[in-house]
Specification:
Order of helices and strands: EHHEEEHEHEHHEH
Low-confidence stretches: none
CATH topology: Aminopeptidase
Oligomer: single chain
Radius of gyration: 15 Å
CATH class: Alpha Beta
């Protein structure tokens, strides 16, 4: 079952994120890894900044979460995580499909460049990487992340974003 996460599930959302983020350990730059990967205060700040989490539930248990955040003229997909024990069951794909249907705006996704499985997941769903220069511009415009994270990330965009960019070119 797909549903919007409730405010009383804050700790559960953090638990899923931190469980799934273990895949980043030893993959992303060492200076960007910390334990827990997303502390409660950071998760709370993300929600205050407008990230709305959606989740999938199986047998009454939340198995995956993904956030959506409207920012200026785009929609960001944020913090997409599936419990380690529940991976490869289509949960992430279902969440992404659902969140894509919630907006008519262009969609951008930022992720770690070294997380090749995450990049491949988004590419499988039709997202394409933007150029390195455009990635830097977009991360600074739409996200609030440290410069070091900008250096070590990629941005993927949907066809709406690429179409909007082409429409602006004279």
């Amino acid at each position: 079952m797909m549903r919007q996460c409730r405010s009383d599930e804050f700790e559960l959302i953090g638990e899923i994120i931190n469980d799934a983020a273990q895949a980043y350990r030893g993959v992303i730059p060492e200076d960007r890894w910390h334990e827990p990967y997303m502390p409660p205060a950071e998760l709370e700040e993300q929600v205050k900044q407008g990230v709305i989490f959606w989740g999938t539930e199986q047998d009454g248990k939340l198995t995956g979460v993904m956030g959506i955040q409207p920012v200026q003229d785009v929609t960001l997909i944020r913090h997409a995580y599936v419990r380690t024990a529940c991976r490869n069951q289509g949960i992430g794909s279902s969440l992404l499909r659902h969140l894509r249907a919630l907006t008519t705006r262009p969609i951008l996704i930022g992720t770690w460049a070294a997380a090749v499985w995450a990049v491949a997941f988004y590419e499988k769903h039709g997202f394409r990487k933007v150029t390195p220069a455009e990635k830097d511009r977009l991360l600074k415009k739409y996200w609030s992340i440290p410069d070091r994270q900008v250096e070590t990330s990629v941005v993927l965009a949907d066809d709406r974003w690429f179409g909007a960019v082409r429409a602006k070119v004279p």
